[in-house]
Amino acid sequence: MKKTHVKTNDVIFQPVTKVVAFIIIIYSLHLFFSGHYTPGGGFIGGLMTAAAFVLLLLAFDVKTVEKTLNVDYIKMTATGLLIAVLTGLGSFFYNVPFLTQTFSYVDIPLLGKTALATAVLFDLGVYLVVIGVTMTIIQTIGETE
Amino acid sequence: MFKLVMTISLIIVAISTLLYVYRLVKGPSTPDRVIALDAIGINLIAITAIISVVLNTSAFVEVILLLGILAFIGTVAFSKYLEKGEIIENDRDQ
């Protein structure tokens, strides 16, 4: 790669990134939690969170983002897989087949009557795996000189 | 009447997208092509919005914001490659 040794000053790009990254992360959380009744879910939510991280990588450099976020993406992938398997194994305690999902209505203060489904926990595993795999691929490619 | 207006605007946006595709193919320099791609992304957002009005559904509303974010990140990555030669830097203070 050609390297120019001119110091650049991204005086518009970096402040815009600081605002837009938060909007993208909030949007990805909205996509993740709305996956049960409207379009969305763990996969596209994870991809959008990874997109916010990629925008941070574009505006700053790999070392700064690693210092700021401080997450090990390979461990994140492992945690996601573990959560997905454990929600499947949890069905064995109730004498039902593997990966059986259930839901119930719970009265939560502030939110009122809310349907809590165990499928969200499985989706959380998918979410973490998608972020971990995407960021591992992008960071491994970006780090090599 | 309403459907006619929607169809006419859809045709106009489609023609404008075709003209951007001409600029994408013909464009003498790479920045021309990058800007044409960005504008095609914005036109795609318009097409999605019009089609979701025609089909009378709100299921595509999330796609609109998604396309906006992806077009922004893609354009920024392209322009950073054109300016610096690398997209993700390892350490800026070198």
List keywords for this structure.
heterodimer, A: 145 residues, mainly alpha, 5 helices, B: 94 residues
Domain count of chain A: 1
- The helix/strand class of chain A is mainly alpha
Count helical runs of chain A: 5
* Strands of chain A, count: 2
Report the helical percentage of chain A: 55-70%
Mean pLDDT of chain A: 88
**H/E series of chain B, N to C?**
HHH
Quick overview of this protein structure:
Chain A: Pfam families: MnhB. Chain A: This is Na(+)/H(+) antiporter subunit B. The complex is a heterodimer of chains A (145) and B (94). By secondary structure, chain A is mostly helical.
Please provide a written account of the structure.
The complex is a heterodimer of chains A (145) and B (94). With 145 residues, chain A is mainly alpha-helical. Chain A has one domain. Helices cover 61% and strands 8% of the residues of chain A. In chain A, a hairpin with a 3-residue loop joins β1 and β2. In chain A, α2 packs parallel to α5 and α4 runs antiparallel to α5. The longest helix of chain A is centred in the last third of the chain and has 25 residues. Chain B is mainly alpha-helical and 94 residues long. Chain B is 79% helix and 0% strand. Chain B is built from three helices and no strands. In chain B, α1 runs antiparallel to α2 and α2 runs antiparallel to α3. Chain B is elongated. The mean pLDDT of chain B is 92. Chains A and B meet through α1, α2, α3 and α5 of A and α3 of B.
SSE layout and pairings?
The complex is a heterodimer of chains A (145) and B (94).
Chain A: H1 13-33, H2 42-59, H3 62-69, H4 73-89, E1 103-108, E2 112-117, H5 119-143
Antiparallel strand pairs in A: 1-2
Helix pairs in contact in A: 1-2, 2-5, 4-5
Chain B: H1 2-26, H2 30-54, H3 61-84
